[in-house]
Amino acid sequence: MASSPSFEGGTILGLDNVQVDLPLAGIGSRSMAAAIDHLVLLVLQLLWLLAATTLAGFSIIEGTLIPVIMVSGFFLLQWGYFAVLEMSTGGKTVGKHILGLRVVSNVGGRPSAAALLIRNFIRTFDLLIGVPLMAVDSRCRRLGDMLAATIVVHEQRTTAEHVQLRRFPASWGGQEVAVVESFLARAHRLEGDQAQHMADQMLQWIRTTEPDFWSAVEPNLVWSQDRVMVLAQVVEAQS
Amino acid sequence: MDYQRFVTLRQPICDSFEKGLEKARRTPRELSYEELEELSVLYRQLLNDHALARSRFPGTGMARRLEMLVLQGTQWLQRDTGRRLPPLRRFLSFYFPNAMGRLRPQLAVVAALFAFTAAMGFSLTAVEPSVGMLFLPAESVTGLEQGKLWTDSIFAVTPGSVASTRIASNNISVLMSALAGGMVAGLGALWIICLNGMMLGSVIALTARFSMADGLLNFIAAHGPLEITLILVCAAAGLRGGLGLIQATDRPRVEVLQERGLDGLIVLLGCIPWMIVLGMVEGFISPSTQLPLGTKVALGGLLELVFILIAWNPLRSSTLTQGEA
Questions:
Q1: Which residue from A4, A15, A110 is facing B67, i.e. has the nearest CB?
Q2: Given Cys at both, which of A148, A226, B166, B237 links B264, Cβ 3.0 to 4.6 Å?
């Protein structure tokens, strides 16, 4: 039986020295998130430019103020986009949100504002050295992350759908339960009638190895051609 | 304990924690102390259950659910308390001056390097004027040949407010680059210091060659001294961080880097407001031809003095308070 997923370098010690595996984000997803963010930044800068020229065109604000607004806006967007978004959303930017990533402290908690500022003021230099550093670091950190004691994790695993059995034979241990749960979670992704065939085999297995359990469950079963549904009924699968 | 019993016993704890966490996320301000305490107790219980499930029932739905709840709980309940930004008064009385105090050795190095490169730029340009021309656009050199300082033409067509904003944002970018560049093994900071030193020395020599050095000094007298000081300070902070990456000590490099990174941020935050002030001085006061040189020198000296007094505050507190320790 496969053990729970482990992430090299992503294991932290929580309270009472309990090991927790953080789902670290890799170079690919982080680079993609950064690319999306730079695209968003470019769009914001263009919008800023458009807004400033529109204001100038309609003489809403004084002419000399236009360059001031434009220069300060560009400067603030350039240096503040990442830091301000991460501080206000608890470690997310637009790119990270789309890819389901989040910045956390190196113990898996919420990073402080200071840590988020530190990891972002060095971003320009990390565009050059960040990727090679992430490639060699076991926690996939760039220099900004090392300075700020932060890491980037996937959020999907913390919100992923999973199947849990509510009813199963008393003699079953974790392995048997894990096999059925794992099958039910993935059944819809199997090709052709593989899922039906496997579900049928599992029902046969339960019927022959757990006759007492089967006799208690069978009277209430609603039989159908969809054997996966029948199996889900037998074990009262809940997602 | 068999799996069925484990599930039966832990299911209510999971449900209760999930419900409490959802409420805490949605309306954190409405959370009472008792509710938060209960959430923390449940979190601790779940951590231990997670450890048990991970070793006894790996791969099961319950193990996955516990892992998911533990990750969510860790993200919400644990906060990085060691890197909080202090209130302004505490920042000025303790954090900023103490961070500045730790910079002295690196500041001496970058100041010496700046002086050396400035002298080198001056000497080279005095001997070979084409060196100084590398740092100025062709039209500025043509202007010098015609007896006009390039700053006159810039400020003649650019309003003070625009110039101030542009100068302040540019100078703040230089501070950030000096600091961040320094963290890369000190290389970026050294590059910025050498470049600025060479540029200053060369430009002074070049203007002196055209008998316009007094005009340049008149222009930089009010903002120049502090501007150079701030660049040196941020470069020194960057260099200190970069040395943490190189030097071997009895502490892990990452730990040293994190400590110096925080110091760097404190120094940067202490310097940025000054760059905004200097942007205004450079945009409005420095180009003025009505203000006498003495006034500009006095203003430059005063700004430098106030910064030094704040940065190396002689009355600074040197101990952490209970909450900061």
A1: A4
A2: B237
